[in-house]
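Example 5.3 — Acetate kinase
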Amino acid sequence: MTVNPGSSSIKVSLVENGGEIDRAVADRWDGVTSEPLRQSEWPDVDVVAVRFVHGGDRRTPVVLDEEILAELANLVALAPLHQPRSLMAAKLAMLGPAPVVACFDTSFHASIPEAARVYGLPRDLTVHNGLRRYGFHGLSCQYATRRVTELIHNDPAATQVLCVHMGAGVSVTAIRDGHSVDTSMGFTPLEGPVMATRSGSVDPGLLVHLLEQKIVRVEELSDVLYHHSGLAGMSGTSGDLRDVLAARARGERDAALAVEVYVHRLRREIGALAASLDRLDAVVFTGGVAVHNPDLVAEIAGGLGVLGVRVVNRLMAAHGDRVVSPWGALPRVFMITDREELELAKQAEAAMARIEGGVTS
Ligand SMILES: Nc1ncnc2c1ncn2[C@@H]1O[C@H](COP(=O)(O)OP(=O)(O)O)[C@@H](O)[C@H]1O
Ligand SMILES: CC(=O)OP(=O)(O)O
Ligand SMILES: [Mg+2]
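Solution (predicted structure tokens):
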């Protein structure tokens, strides 16, 4: 069983031999999602894999116990939209008979070199307080790159890849030879492009101004940046792209501008992350927003001519995992359905096999 608490959805799936055989999806905890978690509805579960976006310095999945839960609870402030939901899911699942394995978004980014990981702050501050770029959406990136390799039959030419994850959270990751070398999200999942309800990157001086001038109180700032910014804050809607596009269709100017800003900031991040690669073999679009809004992806891709990116409208309008760039064009552009559950299952199975084989780390 896999549990993926995203910031706008909770996805619980049953995976067997690498394929999903049942799923329950909700936008918050309810009977649909918590029932299977109690392991009564799906009784034959061998292992439960829970997505934790923040694992701190952990590089591999781990079987949860009370001590590790307490360690992960210390990271709540660094991922307030996600970590409490993952902790709640894990605690429920731990009431059942199967072992519960935590898999981390951050693990995939452990390979990021120091030059891309260190913030330009005083060394004392960063070293003593563990301030560094962690990166998130790692499970999604791992699945998407694996899927790209399958689609092009292991053609080694696609080794330098940008993975653009467009869910409620939005990020861009530069991947070289299967390893993350840079990513837009940082110490927390706030940095980077504009998101559904998160601001993405803003001038740090602006935040200092808000606090110094007492325009926003310290205790309100997190709420403003995580819950009331991004598409939601700019358009006055929920931030779900469906609502924003509906408001734009009704002629609401704020909603139209919000989409323009979203597109612009995401293109800018894609351009920035491309510079962390030596060349660009492939650009992968994934996540709920990308999958359900190919027109928006086409609009973003349409403004990336400077990177050589081109897409074919007919292919954009098709369905399923696919190449959407013209035949022979480089970089190749892919649309891949996000399947974090398959990556969760793979990692949890591997973790259990290591333990059963007597390997402890
Ligand atoms: N069936 C759907 N039709 C249209 N858009 C959808 C649909 N499902 C999800 N989306 C879009 O995907 C977004 C959520 O993406 P997702 O990757 O599932 O989010 P999360 O970050 O919670 O994991 C929603 O805000 C919505 O815009
Ligand atoms: C890390 C993150 O923002 O995840 P999600 O898009 O699932 O909310
Ligand atoms: Mg998600």
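Remark. The chain has 15 helices and twelve strands.
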